[in-house]
User: Fold this.
Amino acid sequence: STEVDLVLHISNFHHRKGGFRNPILLGLDKDIHEKRERNLFLYGFPAGAFLIIGFYHFGLYFYRRRDSSALWFGLYSVFMSLNTLLSGEYYFHHIFPNLSYEIGRKVEYITQFMSIPTLVLFIEKLYPVSKQRLFPGFIKGTSYLLALFVLLSPAKIFTYTFPVMEPIMLFAYVYCIYVLSRAFYLKQDGAVAYLFSLIIITGICINDICHYHQIIYTGYYLPIGMVVFIFSQTIFLSRRFTWALIQSEELSIGLEKKVNERTIELEKSNIQISKERDETESLSKLIKNLNENLDIKRIMAKIHEYIKTNYNIQYYGLAVVDKYKERLQTLEAFPPESLSHEDREYIQTFSTNIQEMVFGFHAYSFKTKKPFFVNRIIESAFTPEENTYKKKAKFDSILTIPLILENEPIGFLDLYNVGRMEMTDIDITKLTILGEQLSGIIYSSILFGIINEKTKKLNSSLKLIQHDLSVAKKIQQNMLIIHDSVLDKLKIIPEYIPMSEVGGDFYGIHKVSNHLYRIFLADATGHGVQAALITMAIKGIYDSLKQFDLEPNVILEIFNREYVERYNSLNSYATAIIVDIDTKKRILKFASAGHPNCILFKNSKIHFLSRTGSMIGLGKNNIYECVEYDFWKEDRLYLFTDGIFEEFDSQNNEFGEERVYSIFTKNRNLSIEKSIQELLKNLDGFLKDKPKQDDLTILGIEYQ
Assistant:
């Protein structure tokens, strides 16, 4: 007979769909086994590739956790590996023959369901361009619920979820295509490759679904298609990580270069800051010295030396309003030495009518009360009188600074060079500050001349003044008494020697709390009665602040602000230092307003209490720093004013700071009293019979 009848009896109690899934294959045993082995390879190879790629991406995520796309892609690969092994030829059962049918189907379905949300999460993390939340949330939520249902139910029930899973999977592919399309539209890197491969996978998925339902008989191609997809994604992710590594290396190199550049800039900035600090200190010292002189020639000689040293400005002219306030008349000038006698005399006697100053640099500066700087002269911008002045002085650039007193112009200071001057805004600001101080000094100098003329008329009042000075001396001495209440834990030895009956130094020792002691030392500019009156003002402000439990720098900032607001019109300044000693914590804190470097001996080593801010009165908003040291029983502190080292002998040699520090260091093993007396003894020997030129104050401090 040419016909063979095959009768199959099938019973099914474990799956929703029993019977054959593929046509029956008839042939030789050898051929059928070869086909079987070929099919096992076609399913086993993709499964192994998926597994290797999955663990590879887990490794990528482990070393770079900021990018979670590698994690989701790794999970997706592992799920696809397990699903491939448990479907088709069921290769997993050949590896583990004792694995039950029930568990195998559960793992197959769960991995199929879990691969859907992991693919969606991978695409979303790779290209975060979609604002959709509801649709992907529905896909992920449904997949998780189906996976949970499979886990909790038997195969004869959960196998009915497969038809539900198919549209969910198609929806997921469509959503991923939508995301990749947006990424492609936005020109995201690699989006076109992902989009193309996912469209192909979607087509293969539709083919496999139709084949499963026996609509068409083409075969299952999803594992092979997924191999191509996953390998392409692996190449892209590897390229992405490699590019990130290259960028990181380039950034590291760039950062190192930037750090080097910034370091060089910082060093330059530090040099500039140091230079500006030195210039500011030089200006502060100049202003202090100017306030101690009333001779206009000596004042201008010091200013001339300052502008030559710091700004390379060679020449100047100083003009002030005459007593009738009609003309501006030269008071002092230093023109080029190469000029003729006639031209020098013209510059030194130059004057101009205030009412006729309509335009020109002097008119601008005088009327606007602002400095005027031009580094290249344009004759058309000047008055004929100024052009004559310019030709005779032979300057090419000039800085005119108005002299303002009580908001009224009283003159101007011309600074010029034969060649060009290069001035920054900061330079002009500093010189303007000098001009502001010069206004008061000139006014004081003029007043001094008037007072000097009337000196003989005042001789009759000398005895009364001397009596007043005697009273003032007693008042000042009472101000400097140290109460016994602050000497319970500290030993403080004061030495105060005013240059005349009264002086410009002031100190105060105050007990803030049971263990906190505050020492204040100030030195007002000038000497005698004027300086003594300033010390009264200093005492008044300090007494209102000394009880507050604030840091020394904060006390100084408040003190300076109060001083400027009350006494700015006096054009008087002061140096000051505040030291807080906490006997409980054994620490010393200080802040210094332009004060000389005082010294602290620790373990026979000398430490300098350097200035931490500008002089009192230089600016309303001065900022001061607070510095802290340990202060133990064997330590010793010396505070003093500049009168101790700014003393000159008959040969005009200065006693000097270094000599003071050397004497204190040499006698550090003596008692405080003896060490101070040794210093004064050395000073007297240095001066011989010459009187002291400044007030002198020394405070020696150590534990009882």
User: Anything to note?
Assistant: Residues 478 and 598 are 25 Å apart (CA to CA). The chain is about 50% helix and 15% strand. The domain at 293-452 is CATH 3.30.450.40 (Beta-Lactamase).
